[in-house]
Amino acid sequence: MDRTFRIKVRMRRFRRRHPKIAFAIRSFMIFSATFGGAYGFVTGSRSENSGYDPNAFAIGASFLFALACLGLATLSMRLRFVAKRMRKLAAHNEALIDRNWELKEAEERARSLFESQGDLIVLRDHQGRITFANDAYCALAGQARSALVGTRFDFDVLEQGDSAREASGTRIHDQKISTPLGARWIAWREGLVRHDAGRPAELQSVGRDVTDRTETERALSDARDQADAANRAKSRFLAMASHEIRTPLNGIIGMGGLLLDTTLTPEQTTYARAVKTSGEALMTLIEELLDYSKIEAGKLDLEQRPFALSTLIEEVTELLAPRAQAKKLEIAAYVDERLPLEVTGDAARLRQVLLNLAGNAIKFTSSGGVALIVEPGIWPNEISFLVRDTGIGIAPEAQSRIFREFEQADDRVARTYGGTGLGLAISERIVKRMGGRITLESAPGKGSTFEVAIPLALSQGDAGRTAFPSPDLSGKSILLVADGIEASLIARRLERWGGQTCLVADAAVAEALLPERSWHAVLVDRALGAAVADRVGEAARAHATQRLVLLTPSSRHEKFSADFTGFLVKPLRAASLAARLALTPEVASPDLAPDPAEPAPVRAPAGGLSILVAEDNEINALLMRSLLTKLGHRVVIAVHGEAALESWLAASSAGTPYDLVLMDIQMPQLDGIEATKRIRAHEAATGSQHTPVLALTANTLVEDRYACFEAGMNGFLIKPLDREKLDEALAVLAAARQLAVERQATLP
Ligand code: ADP
């Protein structure tokens, strides 16, 4: 079978190769067969014993002829059929030739496109040998394609970037390679390309020259690093400069204060006051600049701690009240009862913003007053702080400008009111950082309202708690004889508590109203005039059990009519008002006991504390000595860390340890941090009593605070020293000492 097939194939191949010989052989065979057949037939019929029969011969001859004719006819038909198929095949062949031509052209185009690509393209077989490389690759390699194909050529890698893999399996990576044209950065995409079954897959690498982009990116990143470093240096420089400026300023302000406490002529008092006020103005400016540079350097870290909203607002109003009252302005606050008692956020930064806005409000107002209103915002968890004033107002064209740094509404403002134009820029940045916004509504001559809206989450565990029990005033009538912003806010609060509030600004009207009904309470503002207030108080005696007079802190010690049952100090605290209204007072005597909401000041113990002050600046040392001695304490000064350590060791070994060390941070020989570390190490080694150490520094950077705490300090006092803060810190310490002594005494 196999053999026959092979013979057939060979014969067919022979026919294809030698068609003429095959035709001659085939013709010869046909001729021989036909001739042999006919000749045999004629010869056979003519032989002796053939029994020739002309009839049969004719039939035979005719049969043969007919057979030949049939053969011819069949052949002719087949020929026609073959000719037809040949025509069809020729047409088909032509179409195939055209198609083949097109494909060749397309392939040529694709190849030239591939080769002339700007990107590098290289294909490698499974052994890493190049099977194809485009023009760009050859040019970069500096070799002809023929020289590259079949080799394992690759560029030297100078630097390898990060590599990543796509879901399709393609690997992406950057490489810095060495080429005859110099070092280039190439971004490669590499993946396997599969061919027909039977041939292994090839690795296709497509690389793009990204040298320019990478260099630009590197240059940008270097520039950014440099800018960051410069910014850090700037902020460090500002901190250093502010420290250097703060230290002498501390001396100027402190000494000014001490000078004012001595007996001076009126002229000297004026000069001393001017020195102190200028020092304080310079200090504010330095603090603003420091704050601004911190925000600029992105160093504004916000705390997330729970704090009481109404306490914060009351603190702000009380802090600014003396400034407002000195200008005969009112300042009042109102915190909506729907707001949570405690929220979570950065209270110190919020206080800074509100102090700036309310401080501006006082500065730019000459009559009327300032109100701080806190309400729920338009979004859930948002709280809106409104600072409203009746001041000079701001022209529409200046309203957006004033939020930019060093911008003021106009030159007149700078001349009349001073200022740097930084406050609002700082406030806006802080509020934005808190995720909130500041908006402004104002018209010249009509006052301004700044609104700070920030998201403040309800502090956990606060739900349902209230700051103080609000009095139930439902069905009770309260007469409020007062005028101005605070009066309307008090009326609003009383109404919230259910009271029927009647607010009148005219004493005569109030006197006429008094007999109309029985009043639960009558509140009279002494700002209407001392005599007027006393007259209303007297008239109210027969009609109201509670008669309260509203005083400013400055008029607190002035005498007022005994017809009043108590007093309240403006700006009013909601808790104090609630406490007063809930009381059933003795009708006759005026209540001059301290305000229930105001805690009694803590005093230092009679003997005072023994304090070691480590301070290298002579003036500051003198200031500290004077301040502390005035407060009744005993002071020892050490001029550097080494001296402080020695003094501390001497006192400890003599059995009279210091109660407190106030440690300056930057000192020659041994700085405050190191000195404290050594004190702590000595205490730990000897098991001796722990001496409280408070840092005394003008550095306000967070890192510095951490350093202090890490060294084992107990707290931080910022220079210039606030007399009250110092007093407070010492009082806390004295109280703790007292407690410790009492505990010791009760021990068996
Ligand atoms: P400074 O008060 O130090 O000038 P601010 O940034 O706090 O800087 O304020 C910028 C300017 O905005 C002020 O100079 C003033 O012109 C205007 N401004 C701010 N608050 C008020 C206000 N309550 N009433 C009128 N003008 C104001």
Automatic annotation (TrEMBL):
One GO molecular function term of this record is: phosphorelay sensor kinase activity
Matching entries from Gene3D superfamilies are given as: 1.10.287.130, 3.40.50.2300, Histidine kinase-like ATPase, C-terminal domain, PAS domain
Q: Where is the Histidine kinase domain?
A: 240-458
Q: Which residues carry this modification: 4-aspartylphosphate?
A: 664
Where does the Response regulatory domain lie?
Answer: 610-734
Supply the EC number(s). Answer: 2.7.13.3
Q: Does the keyword Cell division apply?
A: no
Which sequence ranges are marked TM in the entry? 21-42, 57-79
Task: Note the SMART domains from the entry.
Answer: HATPase_c, HisKA, PAS, REC
Q: Which UniProt keywords apply?
A: Kinase, Membrane, Phosphoprotein, Transferase, Transmembrane, Transmembrane helix, Two-component regulatory system
Q: Where is the composition biased (Basic and acidic residues)?
A: 209-227
- Quickly give the catalysed reaction: ATP + protein L-histidine = ADP + protein N-phospho-L-histidine
**Top-level EC class as recorded in UniProt:** transferase
Instruction: Write out the ranges of the annotated region (Disordered).
Output: 207-227
The record's listing under InterPro entries reads: CheY-like_superfamily, HATPase_C_sf, HATPase_dom, His_kinase_dom, HisK_dim/P_dom, HisK_dim/P_sf, PAS, PAS-like_dom_sf
Question: Could you tell me the superkingdom of the organism this chain comes from?
Answer: Bacteria
* Annotated SUPFAM superfamilies: ATPase domain of HSP90 chaperone/DNA topoisomerase II/histidine kinase (SSF55874), CheY-like (SSF52172), Homodimeric domain of signal transducing histidine kinase (SSF47384), PYP-like sensor domain (PAS domain) (SSF55785)
Family annotation (NCBIfam families) = sensory_box
Q: Spell out the PANTHER family in the cross-references.
A: HYBRID SIGNAL TRANSDUCTION HISTIDINE KINASE J
Supply the name of the protein: histidine kinase
